[in-house]
Specification:
CATH class of one domain: Alpha Beta
Distance between the termini: 26 Å
Strand order of the largest sheet: 3-2-4-5-6
Mean pLDDT: 92
Radius of gyration: 29 Å
Low-confidence stretches: none
Number of helices: 24
Shape: globular
Length: about 700
């Protein structure tokens, strides 16, 4: 293995450390990972919900909120329809749970048994027969053109909230909330389905609490500039800036009616910081006969945020945490906008225990759906996991207890490998309703029973997966030649549709190419695809789109349904389509990219302060990789159930002796290193839990004998 530690200018490290108030080790890691822009850095150094993006920046959000509030007012029957995976289950529980708490007549539904992905015609017909009038899709709906058209014919409105890639034609919904719409201006496209659902609930919570909902307001600021004045005005709606203007005016040269200001302010409530100052400025600019009705909000904000009291916007810009992350020089108006937003959120208590409980669900779906852990996904997951650890919501608390995870530090690995699969197993085994019911159930006795059922289903799913792998793996190996080593395919009646996604993912790991696994039903085939990094599956599926009943997904995970009579035609089409797949070539010997070299003095349990700062780890944010030199091997033992393949070491770093695990390294003992050797190593720092006790340990990636003497 090659070890690569990128050289970075010391001046850059010092600059980042000073600007963002972090230590030099954190600053050096940020720099090596290419995180040098404020907008990226803030999602690593900040964790409060204040840094989440405004849900009303998502197009269609206000229309969705208005339609739901109208349904509440009229006592309409509402259906929340989700998907059968963790993302869909948590989304359905999140939205339906909130609407239930509002006292609405709401039910929820997920695809059961062999029902296809997404909103079904049967669900629409049955809901219409029950006098339903509004369907809200979560984590699905963007590809359900026919079903939503049928709902419209039956007098049912549909709100689509989804995050899957849209096709060229969009469904005839009342409104669509999806950050991946081609018309979307939302700054972050990679929310999970439950991330979009959380945004919907957050927007509803704002609408229920705030007198500002749906009301445009203006924030106004004037400032001198040489012989002129600059007048800046931002128009906000639901705390999102929707329009702004800037006028530079020389006093006495033009009247206010010669500017855009009167038309822009017409009918708006106008807020300023230090009203007396701005009245004087406007009088100087346009004459004393001009009077603008404005409300000085500085005193009210000062009461809610005491550290702002008595300070100018210019001074507050220097003190602002948000300002430090801006990619531009913030104006006084920018500072005012940030202050006003923080003020409203605090005054109206936007981030309550209920919101924190919702973040637990949003974090689970985000991790399980392998969304990139960057931008606001980091805050969603970080805040959700912290809340899950501190005060897990009912349903999740039952699972954590039964899985032995209660009361311990939780990270994305715990969710991905233990909690997530148990929730997912319900959908895989055809009963996602049991998982959703667990997340919504108030009776502890019923929750205990449901949690036990889910864990049992997961055990059944594991056994089924092991059995089906013996069918899938040889088929895939045989298909490599057919698809020119660019794709593998496994299919048949013996493949249970609930685990096609798991099998496809496992095949990608085995063959390092995109994989497709197809389950045969009597009349309908259901396929799941998983891809390798760098290849977008939509490019493949679009070439066969006319054959599908339905298809969709993400860049690297997708699915489809197909009439069995079209299977042979599909296979012929797939051979042609596979030739267009372009994969990244093998780069040869593996290179380990090192985030930082740790001197012996840093190798103490205090290093977790740095490691925890960069959590959550996962897609788009790999665990930190460290290097250390000249550690002494003071103990060696072998591990393995049937054969001693692995090695456990004790390494002396001076202040602290570290237990370390080196997988598949038994044959390297005495050949590459031995007891008493000084070694250089590349490693991760982890927490090992055993019998309820947490022990810090190193997981070694690579190890070499050191050259020269040890240094501390």
């Amino acid at each position: 293995m090659n070890w690569e530690k990128k050289d970075i200018p010391p001046a850059l490290v010092k600059e980042l450390a000073a600007k963002y108030s972090c230590d030099h080790l954190i600053a050096s890691i940020l720099a090596r990972r290419g995180l040098i822009q404020g907008q990226d850095i803030q999602y690593f150094l900040e964790e409060g919900p204040r840094y989440l993006r405004n849900p009303f920046e998502l197009s269609g959000m206000e229309d969705a909120v208005d339609r739901i509030l109208a349904a509440k007012e009229e006592g309409e029957k509402v259906l929340v329809f989700g998907d059968r995976d963790v993302d869909g289950i948590t989304s359905a529980a999140l939205v339906s749970g909130f609407l239930i708490r509002l006292g609405m007549d709401v039910g929820w539904r997920l695809p059961m048994g062999d029902e296809p992905y997404g909103l079904s015609a049967q669900a629409v017909e049955e809901f219409a027969a029950a006098s339903g009038t509004l369907i809200i899709t979560v984590d699905c709906g963007i590809s359900n053109l026919g079903e939503i058209k049928r709902a419209k014919e039956l007098g049912i409105d549909v709100i689509v909230t989804d995050h899957h890639n849209p096709q060229e034609e969009l469904p005839q919904a009342v409104t669509i909330v999806n950050p991946k719409l081609s018309t979307s201006t939302y700054p972050f496209r990679d929310l999970a389905g439950c991330g979009v659902a959380y945004k919907l609930v957050s927007a509803l919570r704002f609408a229920m609490k705030s007198e500002l909902y749906g009301q445009p307001i203006c924030l106004l600021n004037t400032r001198p500039a040489n012989d002129a004045y600059i007048i800046e005005i931002a128009k906000m709606r639901n705390l999102a800036v929707i329009e702004s203007i800037t006028e530079t005016v020389v006093p006495g040269m033009v009247g206010i009616t010669d500017t855009r200001i009167p038309a822009f302010l017409a009918g708006q409530q106008i807020f300023v910081w230090d009203g007396a100052l701005h009245k004087m400025a406007l009088a100087k600019i346009f004459g004393k006969g001009v009077e603008v009705q404005m409300l000085d909000i500085a005193l009210e904000i000062g009461k809610e945020i005491p550290q702002t009291a008595g300070k100018s916007l210019l001074r507050l810009r220097e003190l602002s945490r948000i300002a430090r992350y801006s990619g531009k020089e913030l104006t006084e108006l920018d500072v005012f906008i940030n202050l006003f937003t923080s003020f409203v959120q605090r005054r109206e208590h936007h981030f309550t225990d209920e919101d924190t409980a919702d973040l637990q669900l949003a974090s689970l779906g985000t991790i399980a759906d392998i969304m990139p852990l960057k931008d606001e996904n980091r805050i969603i997951v970080r805040a959700g996991l912290a809340a899950l650890q501190e005060k897990p919501r009912p349903g999740l608390s039952d699972l954590l207890f039964k899985l032995g995870l209660a009361g311990r530090h939780l990270n994305t690995v715990d969710i991905s490998w233990q909690l997530g699969p148990v929730i997912n197993a319900a959908g895989r085994m055809g009963s996602p309703d049991k998982a959703a019911a667990l997340l919504l159930e108030q009776d502890p006795v019923k929750r205990d029973r449901l949690a036990t059922e889910l864990i049992s289903m997961n055990e059944d799913r594991k056994k089924l997966g092991g059995d089906i792998w013996t069918i899938v793996e040889p088929q895939a190996a045989e298909s490599l030649k057919t698809y020119e080593h660019k794709l593998v395919l496994a299919s048949g009646e013996g493949i249970y549709r609930g685990i096609t996604g798991i099998m496809a993912n496992r095949l990608v790991g085995r063959f390092k190419v995109p994989a497709m696994v197809v389950s045969f039903g009597e009349a309908i085939l259901t396929g799941s695809l998983r891809s390798v990094k760098g290849y977008d599956l939509c490019a493949l599926l679009e070439q066969c789109a006319d054959l599908f009943i339905d298809w969709g997904g993400h860049d690297y995970a997708a699915g489809f349904s197909l009439e069995r009579t079209k299977w042979d035609l599909f296979l012929e089409r797939l051979k042609t389509a596979a030739r267009t797949i372009e994969l990244r070539g093998d780069t040869g010997e593996e290179t380990i990219v090192i985030d930082a070299e740790l001197p012996h003095a840093y190798l103490t349990p205090d290093i977790f302060k740095v490691i925890d700062r960069f959590e959550p780890y996962g897609e788009g944010n790999d665990p930190l990789i460290f290097m250390a030199q000249k550690l002494k091997v003071t103990d060696i033992s072998f591990m393995g159930k049937t054969e001693a393949k692995h090695v456990k070491l004790t390494l002396d770093a001076g202040k602290h002796k570290w237990p370390a695990v080196y997988w598949q390294a038994a044959e390297k003992v005495k050949r590459d290193f031995d007891l008493g050797d000084m070694v250089d190593l590349v490693f991760k720092v982890t927490r090992n839990w055993f019998n309820g006790i947490e022990t810090p340990q190193l997981i070694i990636t690579d190890l070499r004998r050191s050259e020269g003497k040890a240094t501390s």
